[in-house]
């Protein structure tokens, strides 16, 4: 199975949360915090651990509900600290998310030398 997120809206949750939760609890958090009903099949919600080494993706398709847990090896990922400290409204593209899940570094270009 290779997930296709091309038609789905992505929401990235950078708030540190207990990553031991399963699909049911995380989907409840998405509904309560973000007003996103994952079971409708229109959204992918991505929870990122505090260290950036674990990502859990929740989505639904015509076959059912899905939870993908990805634990990356140390040194194979860049923490998403730049996005955590960025101005609200920063978006992570689908290509950047897939690169992150594949263990690639996510590089952002600065537009000003004064950005954090």
The tally of helices reads 3
Q: DSSP strand (E) fraction?
A: 15-25%
Give the neighbour order of strands across the main sheet: 1-2-3-4
Number of strands: 4
Shape: globular
- Briefly note the structural class of the backbone: alpha+beta
- Helix proportion: 10-25%
- State Rg: 14 Å
CA-CA gap between termini: 39 Å
Order of helices and strands: EHEEEHH
Detail the poorly predicted runs: none
Mean pLDDT: 77
Note the main sheet.
4 strands, mixed
Secondary structure blueprint with pairings:
Blueprint: E1 9-13, H1 23-34, E2 43-48, E3 54-61, E4 64-71, H2 81-84, H3 94-101
Which descriptors would you attach to this protein?
116 residues; 3 helices; 4 strands; alpha+beta; single chain
Structure characterization notes:
The protein has 3 helices and 4 strands; from the N terminus they run βαβββαα. It has 116 residues and is an alpha+beta fold. A 4-stranded mixed sheet has the order 1-2-3-4, covered by helices on one side. The longest helix has 12 residues, at 23-34.
Produce a short descriptive summary.
This protein is α+β, with helices and mostly antiparallel strands.
């Amino acid at each position: 199975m290779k997930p296709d997120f091309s038609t789905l809206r992505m929401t990235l949750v950078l708030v540190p949360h207990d990553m031991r939760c399963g699909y049911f609890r995380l989907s409840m958090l998405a509904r309560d915090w973000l007003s996103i009903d994952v079971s409708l099949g229109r959204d992918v919600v991505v929870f990122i651990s505090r260290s950036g080494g674990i990502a859990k993706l929740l989505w639904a398709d015509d076959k059912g509900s899905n939870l993908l847990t990805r634990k990356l090896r140390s040194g194979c990922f860049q923490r998403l600290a730049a996005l955590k400290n960025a101005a609200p409204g920063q978006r992570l593209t689908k290509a950047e998310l897939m690169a992150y899940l594949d263990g690639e570094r996510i590089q952002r270009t600065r537009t000003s030398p004064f950005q954090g």
